[in-house]
Design goal:
Chain lengths: 345, 129
């Protein structure tokens, strides 16, 4: 049953009074007065007495606060000076529920987000340390999650987020894998995008005079500049990625209908976890195979996805994409032949 | 002029000479400090080797001809270990600088390939930050 919100607020106020080292042993009258001042209404002495009793004894509430009354000081105090209900915060059921989620939260810690988020997760993780060890050991055997290794460049995340939020033009050094050289870039940042555990900064590049993407693992020493910000032509750069699988386009920026044949061996998997939100089934065959259509902007990642399903997926149309896949497979086959010849040679 | 120079970022300033494998990228001039960003590309780079190369680096400015010692050295090596980002910072800049020589290694080993003669006035772009 949910707790009475006003009562919870009074417990928090009483707790704060009992923890106040500069005003020890608050009397009943003082506790009542502070509650009234902070909540803007009158309370009876018996309400505050009941609150103290609940904080001390109510097992459902779970505080079991060591509140004592000092006759010599005519006031209340915690027998354990380190105690505070804020240190408990969660009941057994809540702890159990959070324990389950901590594994997931830990996956996001460190590598994937910014410092403030890490601190927040640390606080949650610390809150569930009570009784955690024995229970978590049990959970460890039941859940296995994908590990993410810490990425380079994540230390710039806060700065890049600030630049996007405050519309600040940034200048940084970037290493281009394609050009195999260093570049100094002045970028008007629009968006940070994660794709397969890698983060990219998307923004208008002054050097390229167009919107570009920069892997943040290759961004060095970003500096805010005082240049005026170049607004994106697009109202929301997130929309640019809505129509894509992945991020790297094949030079075509228009959406196309891509028809794919899917074998009976994997059709149920593809139905239960669609390749893209635009996926629809065009035809279902008696042997379990099916034809699906996606309405998307073709990307390198789309090609990789199709190739990853091997013999169980192929392109029906458009022809240019079908030919590209055939070319990729022939090159791959050629590489195996070369390998065979190298061994024979 | 001094005030302006304190807040400048010079992109690809003109260099008179540059050692092999080193690429000059940017020069930051902030309050009494000058930082030089370099890209280094070599086969089998070794951070200790790079550190040795830079640990006795110093600047000589055209204006004062005084030797300014290295204040801070930062380097990041990639997974492939064939390229590295280096930022060297020099302090005690007491007057605006327009030209300087970055000398790597000790003076007695001074050779042309260990000197970057940098001209900020001929920088490809100057940005306030």
């Amino acid at each position: 049953m949910p707790l009475n919100k006003e009562a919870v607020l009074r417990y928090a106020i009483i707790d704060r009074c009992l923890c106040n080292r500069f005003r020890l042993y608050p009397s009943m009258e003082e506790l009542k007065r502070v509650c009234e001042e902070e909540l803007g209404k009158e309370f009876s002495t018996s309400t505050i007495q009941k609150d103290i009793k609940a904080m001390k004894e109510d097992e459902l509430l779970g505080y079991l606060a060591p509140i004592k009354f000092s006759k010599s000081h005519n006031g209340y105090y915690y027998a354990d000076p380190e105690y505070s209900i804020r240190k408990i915060g969660l009941n057994d059921g809540e702890i159990e529920a959070i324990e389950f989620a901590t594994g997931i939260l830990e996956q996001f810690k460190g590598a994937r987000v910014n410092e403030a988020f890490n601190n927040a997760i640390d606080k949650v993780l610390t809150s569930v340390t009570v009784k955690k060890a024995e229970r978590y050991n049990g959970l460890k055997h039941a859940i296995q999650m994908e590990n993410t290794t810490p990425l380079k460049g994540m230390e710039h995340m806060d700065k890049l987020v600030e630049a996007i939020k405050e519309k600040l033009v940034i200048n940084f050094v970037h290493y281009s894998y394609q050009e195999k050289r260093w570049r100094v870039n002045t970028v008007h940042p629009y968006l940070l995008k994660e794709h397969r555990n890698r983060w990219y900064l998307i923004g208008y590049s002054e050097k390229h005079k167009e919107t570009r993407m920069f892997g943040i693992d290759r961004i060095f020493e970003p500096v805010f500049t005082k240049k005026p910000f170049h607004e994106s032509k697009h109202t929301d750069s997130r929309l640019e990625f809505r129509d894509k699988i992945g991020i790297n386009t094949l030079g075509k920026e228009k959406r196309e209908v891509i028809k794919l044949w899917v074998s009976g061996a994997i059709s149920n998997y593809i139905k239960s976890m669609p390749l893209h939100q635009s996926q629809r089934t065009i035809e279902q065959f008696a042997n379990g195979a099916m034809l699906i259509a996606l309405e998307i902007i073709p990307t390198f990642e789309l090609i990789s996805t199709i190739l990853s399903y091997g013999k169980d997926m192929s392109v029906e149309s458009p022809n240019w994409l079908k030919n590209k896949l055939i070319e990729e497979l022939q090159t791959s086959l050629g590489n195996y032949h070369k390998q065979k010849n190298r061994k024979l040679g | 002029m001094a005030e302006r120079l304190n807040q400048m970022l010079y992109i690809l300033p003109e260099v008179n000479s540059i050692p092999n494998g080193i690429e000059l990228l940017r020069v930051h001039v902030s309050k009494k400090e000058i930082s030089i960003d370099l890209g280094i590309k070599e086969q089998n780079l070794n951070l200790n080797h790079i550190k040795t190369r830079f640990e006795k680096a110093f600047l000589i400015t055209s204006e004062s001809r005084k030797k300014i010692p290295l204040a801070n050295f930062k380097s990041t090596l990639t997974e492939n270990e064939d390229w590295c980002f280096v930022q060297v910072t020099f302090g005690q800049i007491r007057q605006p600088i327009s030209q300087f020589d970055l000398i790597l290694r000790e003076e007695r080993m001074l050779r042309d390939q260990n000197v970057l003669g940098i001209n900020l006035e001929k920088s490809s772009e100057k940005i306030f930050f």
